[in-house]
Amino acid sequence: MDILAIVGSLRDASMNRKLAEAAKREIASLDPTATFTILDWADVPLFNEDIERPAPSAVQRVREQVLAADGIWFFTPEYNHYFPGTLKNLLDWLSRPVDAQQGQVLDRKPCAISGVSAGGSGTAVAQDHLVTLVSLLNMNVMNKPRLTIPFGFSKMKDGALELGDSLPYLQRQAEAFLAFIS
């Protein structure tokens, strides 16, 4: 089973990237044969129909990785009660048909959503907006359980995200996502 993680923040040291790395460890402990890859997509350009065909090489690479994955796990921050514009841009590219024979690569793809934020919502509002969009794109959304971790900076210790009482929730979501994909 191949899981592709899409982290909504492009920052290398983002809390959501650290949460994705923790999820990778949980998936490995639950199913040692599963792969969990964090998508590298910082080079995807802003969507522009003038450069849509042929798609830029970065977009082609990302589409291939999404298509090959058995499931997509989003890790989104919350910026002003919304998911980041960079993530919306990526989803705009992925929502476009590849060509006349192949539609968009997200169609019917199972997905899970998690997030950690500095504020008190724990990314719940951003996640709801993301669910609206990926549902429109016909992704198969695992609505329960979702993981929202508020006040993320309080869980940062020496550059590491220490989940503490949130860890059992991540473990449950990882287990549920493996079952959901199956």
Structure explained in plain terms:
By secondary structure, the protein is of the alpha/beta class. It has one domain: 3-Layer(aba) Sandwich (Rossmann fold). It contains 5 helices and 8 strands; from the N terminus they run βαβαβαβαββββα. It has helices at residues 15-30, 57-68, 85-95, 124-136, 167-181; strands at 2-7, 35-38, 71-75, 110-116, 140-141, 147-149, 156-157, 160-161. Strands 1, 2, 3, 4, 5 and 6 form a 6-stranded parallel beta sheet that branches. The N and C termini lie close together (8 Å).
Fold blueprint:
Layout: E1 2-7, H1 15-30, E2 35-38, H2 57-68, E3 71-75, H3 85-95, E4 110-116, H4 124-136, E5 140-141, E6 147-149, E7 156-157, E8 160-161, H5 167-181
Helix pairs in contact: 1-5
Keywords: Oxidoreductase
Domain NADPH-dependent FMN reductase-like: 1-151
InterPro entries: Flavoprotein-like_sf (IPR029039), FMN_Rdtase-like_dom (IPR005025), NAD(P)H-dep_reductase (IPR050712)
